[in-house]
TrEMBL record:
<dbReference type="Pfam" id="PF13614">
    <property type="entry name" value="AAA_31"/>
</dbReference>
<protein>
    <submittedName>
        <fullName>ParA family protein</fullName>
    </submittedName>
</protein>
<dbReference type="InterPro" id="IPR050678">
    <property type="entry name" value="DNA_Partitioning_ATPase"/>
</dbReference>
<feature type="domain" description="AAA">
    <location>
        <begin position="1"/>
        <end position="174"/>
    </location>
</feature>
<dbReference type="InterPro" id="IPR025669">
    <property type="entry name" value="AAA_dom"/>
</dbReference>
<dbReference type="InterPro" id="IPR027417">
    <property type="entry name" value="P-loop_NTPase"/>
</dbReference>
Length: 270
């Protein structure tokens, strides 16, 4: 199934919120998604309730010791989501290993060699707000990118920069990277929110998600409870928005439909 990277080089735009809650929405459809935390701040790991004592049990050891990814998966004690956690020491990757092809392609090569994602195991990769070795690994490894853009001008600027970066990388990758720009923290009472939407639509056309994630207090609160939005406030606007987003991404073939048996499908519907 699909490997999705969530990236914007601006912080605080909803990357982690989107990676976590899209994974949770996929889980509700019968998938067994994995989250890979590529941010040294380790927010995804910490919301999932996973704290690594040392870098050794985290994604760092993929770079340091070529450790198999399957050995690094930990289960969230709250949501049950399979997460490969991050650690502060991950910030050293850029200086320790340089930017050679082998290192920026490491995650991609390992995911494919291990057949890590199967028909029923999508992977959501959460990135740090920098374009460096870690984010390049996420871009090289993914089938598609979601770029969350919180409805403000700096965040939109980050999106323009990513478009430039992707266009520069595509000849190296020898493919077009499927992308969707996702408006987050959208507050329709603010003129700026509509201005940013207009700019995105003019620049990126059909690559802008039709679904917008509204500013929602439950989404802001859920990390403090170590919960996904579906555990914390299943009837909230935030939960609805992430369900609608997943519907859109599945309908557009951006994320592959889960391969479920008829019994599994019926269990979910009932
Ligand atoms: N739609 C939303 N409505 C309200 N708060 C949000 C929303 N999306 C994210 N947040 C909050 O904004 C902050 C930044 O979001 P986060 O996902 O951590 O961004 P990033 O990973 O891009 O740094 C977090 O406190 C998060 O809970
Ligand atoms: Mg984050």
């Amino acid at each position: 199934m699909t490997i999705v990277t969530v990236f914007n080089q601006k912080g605080g735009v909803g990357k982690t919120t989107t990676a976590l809650n899209l994974a949770a929405a996929l889980e509700r459809r019968g998938c067994s998604p994995y989250g890979i935390d590529l941010d040294p701040q380790a927010h995804l790991s910490s919301i999932a309730g996973i704290t690594a004592q040392s870098g050794d049990d985290t994604i760092l050891s993929l770079f340091q010791r070529d450790r198999p990814l399957q050995e690094l998966v930990q289960r969230s004690p709250t949501s049950g989501l399979g997460v490969i956690p991050s650690h502060m020491e991950l910030s050293k990757v850029d200086t320790l290993f340089g930017k050679g092809y082998d290192i920026v392609n490491r995650l991609n090569a390992t995911l494919r060699a291990e057949k890590f994602n199967t028909e029923n195991t999508p992977v959501m990769i959460d990135c740090c707000p920098l374009i460096g070795v870690l984010s390049l690994n996420a871009i090289f490894a993914c089938d598609c990118i979601i770029v969350p853009v919180s409805a403000d001008h700096l965040s939109a600027k980050g999106a323009m920069q990513i478009e430039k970066t992707l266009r520069a990388l595509e000849p190296v990758l020898k493919r077009r990277v499927n992308r969707r720009y996702l408006l987050t923290r959208f507050d329709g009472r603010r003129g700026m929110a509509w201005e940013v939407l207009k700019v995105l639509e003019e620049k990126f056309g059909a690559d802008v998600c039709r679904t917008r994630i509204a500013e929602n207090v439950s989404l802001a609160e859920s990390p403090a409870h170590n919960k996904t939005i579906f555990e914390h406030a299943p009837n909230s606007r935030g939960a609805q928005d992430y369900e609608t987003l997943l519907d859109e991404l599945l309908a557009d073939g951006f994320i592959q439909q889960p391969a479920l048996t008829r019994n599994e499908r019926e269990d979910i519907v009932n």
